[in-house]
Amino acid sequence: MQQAVIFVRVSKKEQDYQRQVEDLRAVAQNQAVQVVAEISEKISGARRNQDREGIQQLLELSRRGAIQKVLVSEVSRLGRSTVEVLQIVEELTQLGISIYVQNFGIETLKNGKRNPVAQFMFTLLAEFARLERETLRERILSGMDEARRQGVTIGRPVGATEEKAVFLKKYAAVARQLRAGLSVRNTAKLCDVAINTVRKVKALL
């Protein structure tokens, strides 16, 4: 019997991933695989793989040869950066580990060999996720330009203490958007972080 890992992720702390877990448990039962670990993350999928504890745990199990399959509900659960997602797919493929994507019912490996359809789908879907973020950013920046043309003042002075600097460095992208005049809600969407995190950053600026 194959050993598998259930991998789930949500972007915001107030979101719940239990539905993902339950659905993937049913998948494991239908495929007659043994779930040896359930890895969950509450983190932006745009973060680098090396900064994500869940991804590092997944890779550690994979490198030890402890699993043969990874179950995810959709590609974006692995991440929203095309490059980072494809790095995960490539390493797991090299290790002979198949990734099963529930919403499309596809696997990266078929009979131990690369599934070209799945590889193409991963590339395409990861790129769509990236373009979605870019489109949102372009719309927001366009709105800001229009506001400037209408005489709206955008931006505010930056505060600084050593403790603030550390926190702001961690959320540099959030700080950058807030300094440019974006709203808390739009910044949270663009940076894929919780609204409360954006509010904390804003309070420190």
From TrEMBL:
Keywords: DNA recombination, DNA-binding. Residues 3-151 form the Resolvase/invertase-type recombinase catalytic domain. SMART domains: Resolvase. It comes from the Bacteria. Gene3D superfamilies: Resolvase, N-terminal catalytic domain (3.40.50.1390). This is Recombinase family protein. The lineage of its organism: Bacteria, Pseudomonadati, Bacteroidota, Cytophagia, Cytophagales.
